[in-house]
Amino acid sequence: MNHYPVSLLKLIKNLSRLPGIGEKTAERLAMHLLRAPSDESQQLAHSILEIKDKIKLCKLCFAMSDKELCRICSNPSRNAELLCVVEQPADMAAIEKSGGYNGLYHILQGVLSPMDGIGPDNIRIRELLSRIEQGKIKEVIIATGTNVEGEATASYLTNRIEKLPIKISRIASGVPIGGDLKYVDQVTLKRAMESRYAV
After folding, report:
1. Phi and psi of 75, rounded to 5°?
2. What is the Cα–Cα distance from 127 to 144, expressed in whole angstroms?
3. CATH assignment of the domain containing 159
4. 154 — phi, psi (to 5°)?
5. Is the pTM of this model over 0.90?
6. Are residue 38 and residue 118 in the same domain, yes or no?
7. CA dihedral 79, 84, 87, 93 (to 10 degrees)
8. CA–CA distance from 24 to each of 15, 21, 29, 30, 139 (Å)?
9. 173 exposed, middle or buried (CB, 10 Å; 0-12, 13-18, 19+)?
10. Residues of the chain where predicted confidence (pLDDT) is lower than 50
11. How do 79-86 and 64-65 pair as beta strands?
């Protein structure tokens, strides 16, 4: 690649730092940007700078927002009695895409991981408890991951919240639709057996 000009090599190197982008893909993207009209490249550059300047965390749920409250928290048609607790904004986005939930969210911005030095004070647990204590929420749905850290976080939250007069639930997990049992990991299969229901 030494035959490319320095500015093009620099762009390829910067693009290859993006997740999921290898050197070949970065090279293709750089060549596309080079051939694209100038205004298209300027729009891309502007939108990258704009998100760095304008995107912040919602002051209520800690989702990404360009205002004080995100679109979900400021939507009066959402069920304000339901609160779904997730680890990251991407988890909220996944639930939203499913179309199966119409309540509010609380994004922890991480999970408990003592091995990594992440305790209750390092994620948004204090803010969650404060929201619950205001008395508007009737049910908290814990939707953390099913890995060790996600389960530890769910257990910690359950212990803290169960003293309060609200319902606590955990999202179901188990064998995916169309999944073959012989390919399902043991933890998922165990959870599926424990979460079985009558038909």
Report:
1. -90, 110
2. 17
3. 3.40.1360.10
4. -60, -45
5. no
6. no
7. -50
8. 10, 8, 9, 10, 48
9. middle
10. none
11. unpaired
